[in-house]
Amino acid sequence: MSKSKWFASREANRQERVDALHADIRAATGLSDFGVYLSLPSAAWSQGD
Fold this sequence. Notes:
mainly alpha
């Protein structure tokens, strides 16, 4: 089983990725008043193999 690992690049552009996800959801659904919440902070990812 593959586990997600922390990468600095993921941390650096997290808000940009959330903004893109929000825009895609808005375009697909027509919703305008909603939020995107990431439930796992970067420290929650397993660092082991």
